Amino acid sequence: MTAAAATAAALFFVLWWMLQGEESPWVPAGLAASVVMLVAAFARLLVTRKVRSHRSADHRDWHGQSDSGKRSYEDLMQSRSLHAAALRALQKQSAEADAKESLDSHHRVYELCTEYLTGAEKALQTATIAPDGRMALRAGVERVRDLQKHHLLTWARGSARALTHEAQQRARLYEKIEAANRALECIDSALKVYPDEEQLNTSAHAVREFITSSRVAHWVELAERAAFKGYYQRAIDCYRDALYYLTRDRTDLADEAAAERITREIELLRVRLDTDGVIRPGGANQRRNVRRP
Fold first, then answer.
1. Mind listing the pLDDT tens digit for each residue in 195-206?
2. Core-most of 26, 47, 65, 250, by most CB within 10 Å?
3. Which residues contact 137 (CB under 8 A, 6 or more apart)?
4. Residue 183 shares a structural domain with residue 104
């Protein structure tokens, strides 16, 4: 359309210059330019309709639509042409999901891959497929398995990253834990399919580390506040809660060092608590002795 507009403009000025001797030369020049634009718009409309009809045909082939209703995936795989159309449509949707970078699109393509593989496995168990069609179907299964893994891992990593970021922005502990647990559920759902995937295990470990560190930081902060206000027993109880989560969920050397620091804080608070218990009764006796005449 941009090229047509440029051509129409050039034609308008050329005709206007050539017809300067005539009365109202801009009228025929304008009509000629308008005809060029109308032809271009009509051609664009035809191309658009052709593309839409081609996409609709691919969509019907992929879902196995017929006059009697939707075909099963097993019946779809029996036809080599329909199988090829389904595979092309699936690869196209995979490319669109990668271009959009939408997590929902990745999960949708993963589900379509799962349905494709289910239908293909059932079709391979039958004896009605020709040898060349069986080879083509096995090749398609290998391609779709790669697509299935790619989109599931992309969805799991992206969802876990987004939910972990959301958890980091939360102020309250239960909101942090809730968002982090949702991230962990996404990773665990992918681990059920690919339990040996190293990236998923690393992501799950990182999310669990975040949950533990959030809990420990929460109880340590409460303990420090209580100790600052002189509530030593309450501070000891909070430190014990922090130590519980730290020793239950972690085994790293850095975690052992943090546990030792918390243990030392508990011991110091116990000393302060014992010291206050000794000083206060003595101070009260001294005050009573001073009041006596």
1. 888 888 888 888
2. 250
3. 77, 83, 120, 123, 124, 129
4. yes
